[in-house]
Design a protein that fits this description.
The chain is α/β, with parallel strands linked by helices. The chain contains 13 helices and twelve strands. The strands form three sheets. Strands 1-2-4-3-7-8-11-12 form an eight-stranded mixed sheet. The chain has a two-stranded antiparallel sheet with strand order 5-6. Strands 9-10 form a two-stranded antiparallel ribbon.
Length: 380
Protein backbone atom coordinates (compact mmCIF):
# COMPACT_ATOMS: atom_id res chain seq x y z
CA UNK A 1 0.00 0.00 0.00
CA UNK A 2 1.84 3.14 -1.18
CA UNK A 3 2.14 5.95 1.34
CA UNK A 4 4.12 9.16 1.48
CA UNK A 5 5.67 10.81 4.57
CA UNK A 6 4.45 14.36 5.20
CA UNK A 7 6.25 15.26 8.41
CA UNK A 8 9.00 14.01 10.72
CA UNK A 9 6.54 12.41 13.16
CA UNK A 10 5.64 9.38 11.06
CA UNK A 11 2.50 10.86 9.46
CA UNK A 12 1.75 9.39 6.03
CA UNK A 13 -0.82 9.88 3.31
CA UNK A 14 -2.04 6.99 1.15
CA UNK A 15 -2.12 7.44 -2.62
CA UNK A 16 -2.72 5.55 -5.86
CA UNK A 17 -0.77 6.39 -9.00
CA UNK A 18 -1.96 5.72 -12.55
CA UNK A 19 1.64 5.95 -13.73
CA UNK A 20 3.34 7.78 -16.57
CA UNK A 21 1.20 7.69 -19.74
CA UNK A 22 2.64 5.12 -22.12
CA UNK A 23 5.07 6.61 -24.61
CA UNK A 24 4.70 10.15 -23.25
CA UNK A 25 7.44 12.45 -22.05
CA UNK A 26 5.24 15.58 -22.03
CA UNK A 27 2.58 14.52 -19.59
CA UNK A 28 0.96 16.46 -16.74
CA UNK A 29 0.66 15.01 -13.25
CA UNK A 30 -2.70 15.71 -11.63
CA UNK A 31 -3.11 15.03 -7.90
CA UNK A 32 -6.75 14.45 -6.93
CA UNK A 33 -8.03 15.18 -3.41
CA UNK A 34 -11.40 13.77 -2.39
CA UNK A 35 -14.27 15.43 -0.55
CA UNK A 36 -16.18 14.67 2.64
CA UNK A 37 -16.88 11.03 3.54
CA UNK A 38 -16.04 9.82 0.02
CA UNK A 39 -12.34 8.96 -0.35
CA UNK A 40 -10.13 9.02 -3.43
CA UNK A 41 -11.48 5.76 -4.90
CA UNK A 42 -14.28 7.96 -6.25
CA UNK A 43 -11.83 9.01 -9.00
CA UNK A 44 -10.95 5.52 -10.24
CA UNK A 45 -13.32 5.62 -13.26
CA UNK A 46 -11.20 8.50 -14.63
CA UNK A 47 -8.01 6.44 -14.80
CA UNK A 48 -8.84 4.61 -18.04
CA UNK A 49 -9.28 7.94 -19.86
CA UNK A 50 -6.23 9.73 -18.46
CA UNK A 51 -3.37 8.24 -20.43
CA UNK A 52 -4.77 9.19 -23.83
CA UNK A 53 -5.00 12.78 -22.57
CA UNK A 54 -1.38 12.67 -21.34
CA UNK A 55 -2.45 12.89 -17.71
CA UNK A 56 -0.89 11.01 -14.83
CA UNK A 57 -3.45 10.78 -12.03
CA UNK A 58 -2.50 10.52 -8.38
CA UNK A 59 -5.42 9.72 -6.06
CA UNK A 60 -4.65 11.03 -2.57
CA UNK A 61 -6.34 10.19 0.74
CA UNK A 62 -6.33 12.86 3.43
CA UNK A 63 -5.81 12.24 7.15
CA UNK A 64 -8.51 10.10 8.79
CA UNK A 65 -9.20 8.25 5.52
CA UNK A 66 -8.16 4.71 4.50
CA UNK A 67 -4.42 4.15 4.47
CA UNK A 68 -3.56 7.60 5.80
CA UNK A 69 -2.64 8.44 9.38
CA UNK A 70 -5.64 9.22 11.60
CA UNK A 71 -5.80 12.59 13.31
CA UNK A 72 -4.04 12.56 16.68
CA UNK A 73 -5.49 13.63 20.01
CA UNK A 74 -3.60 16.92 19.61
CA UNK A 75 -5.11 17.45 16.15
CA UNK A 76 -8.61 16.80 17.46
CA UNK A 77 -8.02 19.12 20.42
CA UNK A 78 -7.23 21.91 17.96
CA UNK A 79 -10.49 21.25 16.13
CA UNK A 80 -12.38 21.32 19.41
CA UNK A 81 -10.73 24.58 20.49
CA UNK A 82 -13.42 27.14 21.27
CA UNK A 83 -11.03 29.87 20.18
CA UNK A 84 -9.87 30.46 16.61
CA UNK A 85 -6.17 29.92 17.30
CA UNK A 86 -6.39 26.15 17.57
CA UNK A 87 -8.89 25.87 14.74
CA UNK A 88 -6.71 27.96 12.42
CA UNK A 89 -3.68 25.87 13.38
CA UNK A 90 -5.57 22.67 12.54
CA UNK A 91 -6.46 23.84 9.02
CA UNK A 92 -2.98 25.22 8.41
CA UNK A 93 -1.39 21.90 9.36
CA UNK A 94 -3.66 19.97 6.98
CA UNK A 95 -2.74 22.38 4.18
CA UNK A 96 0.99 22.10 4.81
CA UNK A 97 0.67 18.30 4.79
CA UNK A 98 -0.67 18.50 1.25
CA UNK A 99 2.28 20.67 0.24
CA UNK A 100 4.65 18.17 1.83
CA UNK A 101 3.08 15.35 -0.18
CA UNK A 102 3.39 17.31 -3.44
CA UNK A 103 7.06 18.03 -2.79
CA UNK A 104 7.75 14.40 -1.85
CA UNK A 105 6.02 13.12 -4.99
CA UNK A 106 7.76 15.59 -7.30
CA UNK A 107 11.17 14.69 -5.91
CA UNK A 108 10.59 10.94 -5.53
CA UNK A 109 9.04 10.45 -8.96
CA UNK A 110 11.31 12.96 -10.74
CA UNK A 111 8.34 14.89 -12.09
CA UNK A 112 9.56 17.11 -14.93
CA UNK A 113 9.11 20.87 -14.46
CA UNK A 114 6.38 22.72 -16.29
CA UNK A 115 7.72 24.14 -19.52
CA UNK A 116 6.31 25.60 -22.69
CA UNK A 117 6.15 23.59 -25.88
CA UNK A 118 8.44 25.22 -28.40
CA UNK A 119 6.37 27.63 -30.47
CA UNK A 120 3.05 26.25 -29.24
CA UNK A 121 2.35 28.38 -26.17
CA UNK A 122 1.27 25.28 -24.20
CA UNK A 123 2.75 23.96 -21.00
CA UNK A 124 3.99 20.40 -20.60
CA UNK A 125 5.24 18.67 -17.50
CA UNK A 126 4.70 19.88 -13.97
CA UNK A 127 1.94 19.07 -11.53
CA UNK A 128 -1.57 20.37 -10.88
CA UNK A 129 -3.72 19.85 -7.80
CA UNK A 130 -7.49 19.26 -7.85
CA UNK A 131 -9.65 19.26 -4.74
CA UNK A 132 -13.29 18.27 -4.72
CA UNK A 133 -15.99 19.63 -2.43
CA UNK A 134 -14.85 19.74 1.22
CA UNK A 135 -11.33 18.75 0.14
CA UNK A 136 -10.91 22.37 -0.88
CA UNK A 137 -10.67 23.45 2.77
CA UNK A 138 -7.12 22.11 3.32
CA UNK A 139 -6.04 23.04 -0.21
CA UNK A 140 -7.15 26.63 0.32
CA UNK A 141 -5.27 26.56 3.62
CA UNK A 142 -2.13 25.46 1.75
CA UNK A 143 -2.39 28.48 -0.55
CA UNK A 144 -3.26 30.80 2.32
CA UNK A 145 -0.13 29.78 4.22
CA UNK A 146 2.24 29.32 1.29
CA UNK A 147 4.61 31.85 2.86
CA UNK A 148 5.13 29.46 5.79
CA UNK A 149 6.44 26.63 3.62
CA UNK A 150 10.16 25.91 3.57
CA UNK A 151 11.98 28.03 1.00
CA UNK A 152 13.03 24.90 -0.89
CA UNK A 153 9.37 23.88 -1.27
CA UNK A 154 8.32 27.32 -2.49
CA UNK A 155 11.10 27.35 -5.08
CA UNK A 156 10.27 23.83 -6.24
CA UNK A 157 6.62 24.78 -6.73
CA UNK A 158 7.63 27.85 -8.74
CA UNK A 159 8.90 25.53 -11.45
CA UNK A 160 6.55 22.57 -11.01
CA UNK A 161 3.13 23.66 -9.68
CA UNK A 162 0.99 24.51 -12.68
CA UNK A 163 -2.51 25.09 -11.32
CA UNK A 164 -4.95 24.61 -8.48
CA UNK A 165 -8.39 23.31 -9.49
CA UNK A 166 -11.28 23.86 -7.08
CA UNK A 167 -13.83 21.29 -8.19
CA UNK A 168 -17.35 22.10 -6.98
CA UNK A 169 -16.08 23.56 -3.68
CA UNK A 170 -18.22 22.98 -0.61
CA UNK A 171 -20.14 25.67 1.23
CA UNK A 172 -17.79 25.20 4.19
CA UNK A 173 -14.82 26.77 2.40
CA UNK A 174 -16.46 30.20 2.01
CA UNK A 175 -17.12 30.62 5.72
CA UNK A 176 -20.64 31.98 5.59
CA UNK A 177 -24.20 30.68 5.83
CA UNK A 178 -26.21 29.61 2.80
CA UNK A 179 -29.31 31.57 1.71
CA UNK A 180 -32.71 30.37 2.94
CA UNK A 181 -34.12 27.59 0.81
CA UNK A 182 -30.85 26.66 -0.89
CA UNK A 183 -29.02 24.22 1.39
CA UNK A 184 -30.06 20.56 1.15
CA UNK A 185 -27.62 19.16 3.70
CA UNK A 186 -28.99 17.99 7.03
CA UNK A 187 -26.33 17.27 9.66
CA UNK A 188 -27.34 15.01 12.50
CA UNK A 189 -24.27 14.03 14.56
CA UNK A 190 -26.39 12.00 16.99
CA UNK A 191 -27.54 9.56 14.29
CA UNK A 192 -25.63 6.30 13.67
CA UNK A 193 -22.78 6.90 11.25
CA UNK A 194 -24.26 4.59 8.61
CA UNK A 195 -27.46 6.65 8.66
CA UNK A 196 -25.46 9.84 8.39
CA UNK A 197 -23.54 8.50 5.41
CA UNK A 198 -26.72 7.43 3.62
CA UNK A 199 -28.43 10.78 4.17
CA UNK A 200 -25.35 12.80 3.27
CA UNK A 201 -24.67 10.74 0.13
CA UNK A 202 -28.25 11.04 -1.09
CA UNK A 203 -28.22 14.82 -0.64
CA UNK A 204 -24.88 15.57 -2.31
CA UNK A 205 -25.35 13.01 -5.11
CA UNK A 206 -28.77 14.27 -6.24
CA UNK A 207 -29.54 16.38 -9.29
CA UNK A 208 -31.03 19.82 -8.63
CA UNK A 209 -32.60 22.44 -10.91
CA UNK A 210 -29.94 24.28 -12.96
CA UNK A 211 -28.24 27.03 -10.96
CA UNK A 212 -27.04 30.35 -12.32
CA UNK A 213 -25.08 32.98 -10.43
CA UNK A 214 -27.45 35.62 -9.00
CA UNK A 215 -27.00 39.27 -9.98
CA UNK A 216 -26.11 40.07 -6.38
CA UNK A 217 -24.99 37.97 -3.41
CA UNK A 218 -25.24 40.82 -0.91
CA UNK A 219 -27.90 40.64 0.29
CA UNK A 220 -28.28 36.98 -0.66
CA UNK A 221 -31.44 35.91 -2.48
CA UNK A 222 -34.12 33.80 -0.83
CA UNK A 223 -35.03 30.58 -2.60
CA UNK A 224 -38.79 30.26 -2.26
CA UNK A 225 -39.88 27.61 -2.97
CA UNK A 226 -36.72 25.83 -1.77
CA UNK A 227 -34.37 24.38 -4.39
CA UNK A 228 -35.11 20.67 -4.02
CA UNK A 229 -33.69 17.60 -5.74
CA UNK A 230 -35.40 16.70 -9.01
CA UNK A 231 -36.47 13.27 -7.78
CA UNK A 232 -38.36 14.97 -4.94
CA UNK A 233 -40.01 17.51 -7.22
CA UNK A 234 -41.24 14.91 -9.72
CA UNK A 235 -40.80 11.49 -8.10
CA UNK A 236 -42.75 9.70 -10.85
CA UNK A 237 -41.52 11.67 -13.82
CA UNK A 238 -37.80 12.21 -13.26
CA UNK A 239 -35.43 10.82 -15.87
CA UNK A 240 -33.39 7.88 -14.53
CA UNK A 241 -30.17 9.76 -15.23
CA UNK A 242 -31.35 12.46 -12.80
CA UNK A 243 -31.82 10.13 -9.85
CA UNK A 244 -29.11 10.40 -7.16
CA UNK A 245 -25.81 8.97 -8.31
CA UNK A 246 -25.47 6.89 -5.16
CA UNK A 247 -28.93 5.37 -5.63
CA UNK A 248 -27.59 3.69 -8.76
CA UNK A 249 -24.61 2.20 -6.91
CA UNK A 250 -24.80 -1.20 -5.30
CA UNK A 251 -24.38 -1.20 -1.50
CA UNK A 252 -21.00 -2.85 -1.98
CA UNK A 253 -19.79 -0.10 -4.31
CA UNK A 254 -21.00 2.66 -2.01
CA UNK A 255 -19.21 1.04 0.93
CA UNK A 256 -16.01 0.84 -1.13
CA UNK A 257 -16.10 4.59 -1.76
CA UNK A 258 -17.00 5.95 1.68
CA UNK A 259 -15.40 6.01 5.11
CA UNK A 260 -18.16 6.26 7.74
CA UNK A 261 -15.91 6.69 10.82
CA UNK A 262 -15.15 10.30 9.88
CA UNK A 263 -18.82 11.10 10.51
CA UNK A 264 -18.63 10.04 14.16
CA UNK A 265 -17.13 13.36 15.27
CA UNK A 266 -14.19 14.76 13.33
CA UNK A 267 -16.11 15.80 10.22
CA UNK A 268 -18.67 17.60 12.37
CA UNK A 269 -15.83 19.49 14.05
CA UNK A 270 -14.55 20.56 10.64
CA UNK A 271 -18.02 21.70 9.60
CA UNK A 272 -18.45 23.80 12.73
CA UNK A 273 -15.10 25.63 12.79
CA UNK A 274 -15.32 29.40 13.00
CA UNK A 275 -16.46 31.03 9.77
CA UNK A 276 -13.66 33.55 10.26
CA UNK A 277 -11.03 30.82 9.91
CA UNK A 278 -12.38 29.76 6.53
CA UNK A 279 -12.97 33.33 5.31
CA UNK A 280 -9.44 34.37 6.24
CA UNK A 281 -7.92 31.40 4.42
CA UNK A 282 -9.98 31.99 1.28
CA UNK A 283 -9.08 35.69 1.24
CA UNK A 284 -5.37 34.99 1.60
CA UNK A 285 -5.51 32.21 -0.97
CA UNK A 286 -7.36 34.01 -3.77
CA UNK A 287 -8.15 37.67 -3.18
CA UNK A 288 -5.35 39.22 -1.13
CA UNK A 289 -2.33 37.10 -1.92
CA UNK A 290 0.56 39.52 -1.34
CA UNK A 291 2.18 37.73 1.58
CA UNK A 292 5.90 37.35 0.81
CA UNK A 293 8.15 40.27 1.81
CA UNK A 294 10.30 41.76 -0.94
CA UNK A 295 13.93 42.51 -0.09
CA UNK A 296 15.60 45.56 -1.64
CA UNK A 297 18.63 47.71 -0.95
CA UNK A 298 18.26 50.64 1.38
CA UNK A 299 19.51 53.86 -0.22
CA UNK A 300 21.06 54.83 3.12
CA UNK A 301 23.60 52.10 2.69
CA UNK A 302 22.54 50.20 5.79
CA UNK A 303 21.81 47.07 3.86
CA UNK A 304 18.67 45.28 2.56
CA UNK A 305 15.27 46.08 4.05
CA UNK A 306 11.84 44.51 3.75
CA UNK A 307 9.13 46.82 2.47
CA UNK A 308 6.60 45.72 -0.12
CA UNK A 309 5.01 42.29 -0.43
CA UNK A 310 4.45 40.04 -3.40
CA UNK A 311 2.51 36.90 -4.19
CA UNK A 312 3.93 33.46 -3.59
CA UNK A 313 3.82 31.68 -6.99
CA UNK A 314 2.41 34.66 -8.97
CA UNK A 315 2.21 32.58 -12.16
CA UNK A 316 0.01 29.94 -10.53
CA UNK A 317 -3.37 29.55 -12.19
CA UNK A 318 -6.53 28.75 -10.25
CA UNK A 319 -9.61 27.20 -11.85
CA UNK A 320 -13.00 26.98 -10.18
CA UNK A 321 -15.26 24.28 -11.61
CA UNK A 322 -18.92 24.31 -10.64
CA UNK A 323 -21.56 21.87 -11.78
CA UNK A 324 -24.83 23.30 -13.07
CA UNK A 325 -27.08 20.83 -11.22
CA UNK A 326 -25.02 20.45 -8.05
CA UNK A 327 -26.24 20.63 -4.46
CA UNK A 328 -27.07 24.15 -3.30
CA UNK A 329 -24.21 24.45 -0.79
CA UNK A 330 -21.65 23.98 -3.57
CA UNK A 331 -23.52 26.15 -6.07
CA UNK A 332 -23.58 28.99 -3.54
CA UNK A 333 -19.88 28.57 -2.78
CA UNK A 334 -19.03 29.02 -6.47
CA UNK A 335 -21.28 32.09 -6.66
CA UNK A 336 -19.63 33.66 -3.61
CA UNK A 337 -16.10 32.93 -4.84
CA UNK A 338 -16.97 34.47 -8.21
CA UNK A 339 -18.49 37.60 -6.66
CA UNK A 340 -15.64 38.10 -4.20
CA UNK A 341 -13.05 37.56 -6.91
CA UNK A 342 -14.68 40.17 -9.14
CA UNK A 343 -14.65 42.65 -6.24
CA UNK A 344 -11.01 42.00 -5.26
CA UNK A 345 -8.18 44.31 -6.28
CA UNK A 346 -6.58 43.11 -9.49
CA UNK A 347 -3.04 43.65 -8.21
CA UNK A 348 -3.63 41.42 -5.18
CA UNK A 349 -5.79 38.60 -6.47
CA UNK A 350 -4.66 35.42 -8.18
CA UNK A 351 -5.55 34.60 -11.75
CA UNK A 352 -8.81 32.66 -11.47
CA UNK A 353 -10.99 31.23 -14.23
CA UNK A 354 -14.47 29.80 -13.77
CA UNK A 355 -15.89 26.80 -15.63
CA UNK A 356 -19.50 25.62 -15.49
CA UNK A 357 -20.17 21.96 -16.35
CA UNK A 358 -23.58 21.95 -17.99
CA UNK A 359 -26.11 19.34 -16.87
CA UNK A 360 -23.74 17.86 -14.29
CA UNK A 361 -24.28 17.08 -10.63
CA UNK A 362 -21.70 16.97 -7.83
CA UNK A 363 -20.46 13.55 -9.02
CA UNK A 364 -19.61 14.37 -12.65
CA UNK A 365 -16.20 12.68 -12.28
CA UNK A 366 -18.01 9.41 -11.49
CA UNK A 367 -21.01 9.86 -13.79
CA UNK A 368 -19.10 11.16 -16.83
CA UNK A 369 -15.41 10.40 -16.28
CA UNK A 370 -14.38 10.77 -19.92
CA UNK A 371 -16.04 14.15 -20.22
CA UNK A 372 -14.48 15.32 -16.97
CA UNK A 373 -10.99 14.12 -17.89
CA UNK A 374 -11.28 15.99 -21.18
CA UNK A 375 -12.11 19.18 -19.30
CA UNK A 376 -9.22 18.69 -16.89
CA UNK A 377 -6.78 18.04 -19.72
CA UNK A 378 -7.69 21.44 -21.17
CA UNK A 379 -7.05 23.39 -17.94
CA UNK A 380 -4.59 21.44 -15.82
Amino acid sequence: MPTAPVDDEGTVLYYEDSGVPAGSTKYVTLVLIHGTCFHSAIYRPMISFASQRKLRLVLLNLRDYPGSTPLTAVDIADLRDLGEEGQARAMQKRGLEIAAFLRWFIETENIPPAQEHAGQGELAGGLSLLSWSGGNCPTVAMLAHADKLPEETRKLFETHLRSIIMHDPSGTVIGQPRPPGLSALKRNPSAPVDVQVAEFAAAVASYYPPFTFPESVNPPPTFDPPRRALHFISPDGVDTKHTPTTSRMTPEVLRSLTHPPVMAENQHLIWTLSHDVYRTNLTRALYDCCMQPVEHDDSSGKGPVMQAEKQVWPALRVHVIWCEMTVGDCAWAAAIIHAQYEAARIECRRRVRFHMVAGANHFVHWEEPERFVELLASIA
